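Researcher: Go.
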Amino acid sequence: MKEFLEFIVRHLVDRPELMELEVVEEDNRVTFKLRVGQGEVGKVIGKNGRTAQSIRVLLAAVAAREGKRAVLEILD
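Model: Structure:
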């Protein structure tokens, strides 16, 4: 799942080398803590939060196949 999320975000931002992704796994839950370069959070969130919501839906689908719940946190 981590590689999947990295692939998506790297294609959204202008400076993918500044992206940081921390994965915290628990029993049935995976939390992704995403940080991108300054001024690029808006590109990941998208207009009215639509891009972030789409990413969350895709992550939820991938996680469900593994019997887990996925949570995406986009941090400044």
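Model: The chain is about 40% helix and 25% strand.
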